[in-house]
């Protein structure tokens, strides 16, 4: 395995610290990044120490550590030390009253959440969700979405993308090319979307096209039968290359959704290979044991030159705006408190 070029892989760990076996494994295999969740995030000092420990293990001072931090139901920084952020549905409901006010509140919230992560050393919260949501959409999306209107989703999504960049946190739009037509949860089974190409282009795909300059995008584990009847997007060369890179024109970093989700089949190494072969820049192995991380690393490959260039292009867009997280969060809550009940 290459020690010079990182593997095209994010790994996960079970605990708030790396043990000696994990340190040795990451030193040997050099995965590009670490993905952390609630099980790994306890206090600010502990998170900073974990980030430093991973970076020391792989020998890169800028090795990225990601989490899921959208607001609402999906926010892994949800323990006592951190404020609780509102869901995207809340901001969309505010937009029903006043779109300008909703954008202002969402900008404040995104600045606060992004700055909080940046201060901890977390490079991204894998946000925003640009999936539409309908009456038939799987509950796995729900309040994570800005709603069914692609124009509104793109407009509010733009606020999140720009605001995160301004405070030095990496936005990742998901789940490209759209999870909203899926009626089942890709964590549990393989969803199949049977809408026509014309419908998908006019609706689900549109927010991703409107925000096509977002530095990173997470690929769904959903089958779009109008394009590929068998394979979910994340392991489909047709979707990754012909649709996302071709029709949609996306030029940023493509990372898969978590490889442990049951929409994918076969052993973990096969899932890693399928994802990278399909055209994703990076495979996401977001949790697991040391043995599973080793299996994923053995199946991965070093980042390609093109992937490295895409990663560097995203880094160049990160700003350095400093904000008071608690102050902005309180201002957002004040805006919602003044709404008519």
UniProtKB/TrEMBL annotation:
Enzyme's top EC category: hydrolase
Record has Hydrolase as a keyword: yes
Ranges for domain Glycoside hydrolase family 3 N-terminal: 33-296
Protein name: beta-N-acetylhexosaminidase
Record keywords, A-Z: Glycosidase, Hydrolase
Database matches in InterPro entries: GH, Glyco_hydro_3_N, Glyco_hydro_3_N_sf, NagZ_Beta-hexosaminidase
Signal peptide boundaries: none
EC number, as in UniProt: 3.2.1.52
PANTHER family, per the entry: BETA-HEXOSAMINIDASE, BETA-HEXOSAMINIDASE-RELATED
Entry similarity comment: Belongs to the glycosyl hydrolase 3 family.
Gene Ontology MF term list: hydrolase activity
Catalytic activity: Hydrolysis of terminal non-reducing N-acetyl-D-hexosamine residues in N-acetyl-beta-D-hexosaminides
Keyword GTP-binding carried by entry: no
Source organism: Microvirga terrae
């Amino acid at each position: 395995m290459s020690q010079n070029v990182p593997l095209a892989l994010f790994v996960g760990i079970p605990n708030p610290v790396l043990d000696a076996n994990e340190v040795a494994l990451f030193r040997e295999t050099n995965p590009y990044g670490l993905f952390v969740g609630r099980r790994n995030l306890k206090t600010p000092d502990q998170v900073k120490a974990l980030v430093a420990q991973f970076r020391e293990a792989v020998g890169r001072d800028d090795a990225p550590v990601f989490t899921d931090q959208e607001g609402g139901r999906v926010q892994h920084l949800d323990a006592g030390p951190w404020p609780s952020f509102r869901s995207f549905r809340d901001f969309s409901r505010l937009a029903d009253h006043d779109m300008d006010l909703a954008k202002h509140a969402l900008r404040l919230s995104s600045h606060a959440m992004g700055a909080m992560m940046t201060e901890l050393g977390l490079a991204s919260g894998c946000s925003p969700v640009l999936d539409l949501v309908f009456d038939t959409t799987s509950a796995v999306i729900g309040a994570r979405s800005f709603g069914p209107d692609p124009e509104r989703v793109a407009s509010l999504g733009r606020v999140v993308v720009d605001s995160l960049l301004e405070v030095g946190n990496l936005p990742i739009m998901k789940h490209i090319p759209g999870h909203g037509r899926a009626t089942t949860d890709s964590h549990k089974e393989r969803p199949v979307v049977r809408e026509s190409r014309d419908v998908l282009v006019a609706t689900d795909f549109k927010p991703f096209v409107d925000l096509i300059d977002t530095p990173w995008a997470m690929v769904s584990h959903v089958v779009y039968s109008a394009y590929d009847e068998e394979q979910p997007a994340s392991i489909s060369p047709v979707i990754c290359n012909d649709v996302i890179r071709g029709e949609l024109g996306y030029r940023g970093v493509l990372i898969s959704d978590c490889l442990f989700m049951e929409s994918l089949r076969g052993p973990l190494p096969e899932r890693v290979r399928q994802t990278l072969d399909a055209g994703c820049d990076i495979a996401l192995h977001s949790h697991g044991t040391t043995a599973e991380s080793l299996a994923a690393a053995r199946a991965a490959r070093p980042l390609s030159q093109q992937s490295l260039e895409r990663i560097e292009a995203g880094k160049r867009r990160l700003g350095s705006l400093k904000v008071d997280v608690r102050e902005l969060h309180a201002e957002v809550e004040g805006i919602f408190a003044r709404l008519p009940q």
